[in-house]
Design goal:
The protein is 34% helix and 27% strand. By secondary structure, it is of the alpha/beta class. This is NAD(P)/FAD-dependent oxidoreductase.
Length: 396
């Protein structure tokens, strides 16, 4: 595929945020180019793919206008459906709450979203890496050759280390605790609760983070650890912690005994919140590039897509003279900024507690299932805030 020399809008990154941005921009009668560095969209996988159902997402971000593609998910993009979320404390205490959610096949889901963007009229250029950003001119190299393409608006949906964001100085403040590593295995031959998503805590297995088991249907599952490098023990890496969890955790190892690893998944997770600026006179960033993640659970599919929708719509309206491009900043913060900011605050309160098995167990014991659900949704009920602050004071 040979792109045109210029477009109204160029979107970099064909993940959930980028494809959603491209779809909504193209539906608003603008010329759109969607660029993806991967030769096969969705591969390699970089996410566990846990996605609550539409009504739950409405509770998660009640002020957001959710994209239609979150309501209409094809059945072939769903591995399995869960009805319960369970927390396992370091001492084995179990507590949880009801939740309706799917384990998404991100390979198929990401392709589905890219196809929706293309069907709306966007040009799609895969296997192409953006090597330089000069204003609104992009220099690219990849499977189809080298190109220089200029846009009127650039949307960066190219991940935590966004080249678009860096070019416009839309970057987060340095914070070693603000970026996590998600290291995961896809397994076959497991014997787990297919109806539940499980989250495990304990400093010996995931210091300052958590491990998870998500059924993908039948005897398959996604397991992983979400952890930050600043908390690694000397000479250990994320893989070491996942191996320790899989083979030595007193509860999880029994469920995973004899399983075969069929795929390795890894990616960065920006859990430090959004950069101070996510919009300029000609550039927007969305998704992971903009910190559109709920830091308490690492979930970012839905929030990334909300950000993408707003980026695509705002860029199209800007080109029609209906608004300033910087209005995107106000729009996404009004729709989900509070939840993202609150989740970062809660994550910071939990950081110290998760280094102490005793205090983490106490926290899980004291917090009710309803309060747990609120925390997962980026909310902080007053009783929970008082409990966490009291435990932190005791730790100090």
């Amino acid at each position: 595929m040979t792109p045109e020399d210029s477009y109204d809008i160029i979107v970099v990154g064909a993940g959930p945020a980028g494809s959603t941005a491209a779809m909504y921009a193209a539906e608003n009668d603008t010329s759109v180019l969607l660029i993806e560095k991967k030769k096969d969209i969705g591969v390699p996988l970089q996410c566990g793919g846990f996605l609550p159902h539409y009504p739950v997402l409405q509770e998660l971000v009640p002020n957001a206008e959710l994209p239609v593609t979150l309501e209409e998910i094809p059945s072939n993009c769903i591995h399995a459906t869960a009805s319960y979320q369970r927390f396992i404390a370091p001492n084995g205490l179990s507590k949880g709450f009801d939740v309706d959610a799917d384990a998404i096949d991100r390979r198929r889901f990401d392709k589905h979203l890219a196809k929706r963007a293309a069907k709306a009229g966007a040009d799609l250029l895969v296997g192409t890496n953006v090597t330089e950003v000069d204003g609104t001119k992009l220099f690219m190299d990849g499977a189809f050759g080298e190109f220089e393409v200029e846009g009127k608006v650039i949307i960066g949906a190219d991940g935590p280390n966004s080249i678009v964001g860096k070019a416009s100085n839309m970057i987060r403040d340095p914070d070693p605790m603000g970026t996590g590593t998600a290291f995961e295995y896809e397994l076959s031959g497991v014997d787990i609760d297919r109806e539940a998503v499980e989250m495990y805590f304990g400093k010996d297995f995931v210091p300052g983070g958590y491990a998870w088991i998500i059924s993908q249907g039948g005897d398959t599952a996604n397991i992983g650890v979400g952890i930050r490098e600043a908390l690694f023990e000397e000479h250990l890496c994320a893989r070491d912690y996942l191996e320790r969890f899989m083979y030595k955790h007193p509860i999880a190892s029994k469920k995973l005994e004899g399983a075969s690893i069929t795929s390795v998944v890894a990616g960065l997770v920006p859990v430090g919140g959004a950069p101070k600026v996510t919009a300029s006179h000609n550039t927007l960033i969305a998704g992971d590039a903009a910190g559109h993640i709920i830091a308490t659970n690492g979930g970012g599919i839905s929030t990334a897509m909300v950000g993408g929708k707003l980026a695509g719509e705002t860029a199209a309206e800007f080109l029609k003279g209906k608004c300033r491009l910087q209005e995107y900043e106000t729009r996404w913060r009004q729709q989900m900024g509070l939840e993202i900011k609150t989740a970062v605050y809660v994550r910071k309160l939990m950081d110290k507690l998760m280094r102490s098995d005793r205090l983490m167990t106490t926290a899980i014991k004291m917090i009710t299932p309803e309060q747990m659900k609120a925390i997962q949704c980026g909310q902080l009920p007053d009783p929970v805030k008082k409990t966490l602050m009291k435990l932190n004071v005791g730790l100090s």
